[in-house]
Amino acid sequence: MAEDVLGQNPRVLSAGRTTPDEYADMWRAINERGRWDGEIWDRRKDGSCYPKWLTISTLHDAQGRLTHYIGSFTDISERKAVEQNIHHLAHHDMLTGLPNRFSLQHRLRQVLASANRDRQQVAVLFIDLDHFKRINDTLGHSIGDALLIDVAARLKGCVRDSDIVARLGGDEFVIVMTNVADGRAQDISSMARKIVHRLSCTYGIDGHELQVTPSVGISVFPVDGEDAETLMRNADTAMYHAKSLGRHNYQFFARSMNEAAAERLQLESAMRRGIERGEFLLHFQPQIEIASGRVVCLEALVRWQHPEWGLLLPDRFIPLAEEYGPIEALGRWVLEDVCRRLRELERLGYGYLRIAVNVCGRQLRRSDFADGLGRLLDTYQIGPGRLEVEVAESVTAELSDAMIVLFQELRSLGVTLSIDDFGTGYSSLGRLKLLPIQKIKLDRSFVADIETDNNDATICAASVALAHSLGLAVVAEGVETEPQFAYLRALDTDLMQGYYFCEPLPIDQLMAFLASHSPTAAS
Ligand code: C2E
Ligand code: MG
Ligand code: MG
What we know:
Elements: H1 2-5, H2 20-33, E1 35-43, E2 49-60, E3 66-75, H3 77-91, H4 101-118, E4 121-129, H5 132-139, H6 141-158, E5 164-169, E6 172-180, H7 185-200, E7 203-205, E8 208-210, E9 214-221, H8 228-244, E10 250-252, H9 255-276, E11 280-289, E12 294-306, E13 310-312, H10 314-324, H11 327-347, E14 354-359, H12 361-364, H13 369-379, E15 387-392, H14 401-412, E16 416-422, H15 429-432, E17 439-442, H16 444-448, H17 454-469, E18 473-477, H18 482-490, E19 495-497, H19 507-517
Parallel strand pairs: 9-10, 12-14, 14-15, 15-16, 16-17, 17-18, 18-19
Antiparallel strand pairs: 1-2, 2-3, 4-6, 4-9, 5-6, 7-8, 11-12, 11-19, 12-13
Bound molecules: ligand C2E and magnesium ion (MG) (2 copies).
């Protein structure tokens, strides 16, 4: 109301935040230049403070005498709030409220400068969640987001006030431990252990009980790098090393890792080139049906004929291809080559033979996997039941709705589904039966010791009995000797595969093997 202020000294509006020096500057400007404008904090009638943009100018009469000061202002509290918000957004991650990459780099540089002065150590811990993408893909982004928020809170709970917790994006977090006393590496490892433990405890989110594990890589200032960029890069390298050691662990950076990383990168790009140049080929290993003694199925096993390195087995390149992506292109090539072979086998009078293909988790998670396979089966006119897909037991561990739907789709394409390396993933057969599978393949580690290790023998016997009661066929893989064969036959194993019968062979040698083992087939 006008009467509240009429006749009063403008001082009644003051919020008391402006210092005497600032007022002095203001008056000096008004007296010298006849004008001042700037930001000032005032008080509203209800007592609340707000920032305003105030312009004060002077008014003179005809004789040039100062008669009035005129002040006009606009309330800039909203604009200030927006500015502050923008500042916050620029420096923080929106989801978790943690400092973002930009802010982390800035603060890490400050921390390093003072650590340098005080001769302290600083540890950079690079944290990445293992298989987080699966949670996003199978349960949706809102659950994934809620999990990340929980992870952020747990990380904050692990550190001291002076440490920094930041999120780089996705499922990557960084902790900077400041003021680590020289030679106290055990403080850093105990922090890393704490993080691995805390993040691995079950998360209760939206009715789901979720489990996720972290891989942590650590670099230490000044030994592993003297600037923020080098420390971050080396912690990242150490994190990849932790992943390659089976995930769910922490690793300190070591210089040799950079060489290993470079080698991996070289292998990966060589692999992409190799796919384009047709350096990959398939070997085939027969599966024998015990009741009839006939070869009924061939497992396709990929090999890489590298121009310099020679013939490489899948263990050298499949894990890497899966981690870095070339498996998708390689997997498509394998499927197409197998379809071509199936067509060819039929033409040669082996139309009863099936081919089994190994497919890894990354391939299955592609939303177009079933469609792509359906198109191939159409193009090559492959009848139902001739193609088998082998999925490792470890891949089916999550058993999501998406996976069940995918398996049903594959089933309706006429694809036979089998669980590879069975027994290594601790999943129960009852649970696996939620998937429309037809076969399990007993892992060769059990077969190897079946005559000497009682546990392995028991696992094999129990698996065969249970699989049969669920209507599943059992393949024993890695059968190398006559006693193993006899033992497994006594257990009523349906099919066997292994060096005892035949090694994986290039297609021409395999055709010769088939001709000598199924004289009635091709004539
Ligand atoms: P897997 O599917 O369990 O394949 C069986 C492995 O056991 C093959 O190794 C085969 O050569 C080996 N093997 C067969 N009989 C015997 C035996 O009597 N004794 C012993 N000790 N080993 C035997 P390989 O060819 O080195 O393949 C290794 C793994 O690579 C495969 O394990 C499979 O998981 C993966 N793999 C192979 N080809 C492909 C592919 O095209 N795509 C994908 N995603 N993975 C593949
Ligand atoms: Mg297999
Ligand atoms: Mg296997």
